[in-house]
Structure formats: C-alpha cells, structure tokens
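During data preparation, we tokenized the protein backbone, and the record follows.
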Amino acid sequence: MYGTHGKIRKLLPLNEFVEKANKIKKKKHLVYSVLLYYTGVRASEMCRPVKEQFKTQGDILLFDVGPREKTGHLTSPLEIPLSLPFMDDVLHLIRYTHKGQKVFDFHRTTGTRIISKYFDAYSHYFRLNRITQILMDGFTLPEVMNWSGHTTIQGVNPYIGQASIHNIGQSLKPKKEMGAIRR
C-alpha cells in the first residue's frame, strides 16, 4: 500500500474502505476511521477535537480542525458530505458527546492501532490517500494546501508525483459532489 518516505503505492477506494470499516465493532473506532479517511488529517489532529469543532450546514458536516499539528496554520473548516457512508454514525457520536468534551477519548497511538488492525495500514496512509485523491480530482495547489494544512508547495510536492502515477480515476467522490474544497 505504501513504501518508504510516505510514497503511496495503492489507493484505498471508497468501496474497499467501506468493506473493511463494516468489520469495526466499536462505534468510536469506526467514526475515528471514517473521519480520518474522509478528511486526511493527521492522527494527532483527529484525537483532539471537541464537540464544538463540528457543525452541520445543510447536507455538509463542517470540521474545524483548529491549528494544524506541524505548522500551527489555521485552515477553513473541512467539508464532509453527509451523504457519504457512515455519516449517520459520525453525527450520532458528535451529538452524544458532552459540550466541551473530546469526541475521541483516546491518544493517537490507539488510533494508529485501530487503523493497523482493520486496514493493515498506518494512520498516515489515510492522509496520503486523501491528499492524492484530491489532487487526482483536479483541485488547485492552494485548495489542496488549505485542505491539508500545508503552508508551502514543497510540502505538497511528494503527493503531486503520486497523483500522476495513480491517476486511475478512483476518487472519494467526484469534485462536484464532494463539496470538500471551496472553489
């Protein structure tokens, strides 16, 4: 799936993700995996949000990641279509999280074990997968940088080559439906 230096060798298409995610019994573990896959944020960024960082707006879930892990950069909230698989589970967990409480009450090492157990991958693979898919969908570098939290083009460069290698047309959702990045 991935090689040295974070080079992605095989993308994880949505249908394969859903097949593997259906085997996860604990709802918190499922929701963690789902949000990590749909957003591509770092594992440590996924473990820290509180209930108030998630808002619904029409048919979209907005996720305000907060300051990015490596750069402290603030990005626009990430948009996740509510029509995607498992989003009812995501909304349920957020709804029943107490005000001011973290949505996931575990550390990134637990998150890494979850991804390893059910997807035979490390959690950063979902980040590589998502950014590569966004590039394959034809989004501009500034749009990709806003989504991923990268502050320089050099940070996105490794993904650009991977997107051209894997340009097999398998993305999370077509650009029009994804709604994930504002144009």
In short: The radius of gyration is 15 Å. The longest helix spans residues 27-39. The beta strands are 54-57, 60-63, 78-81.
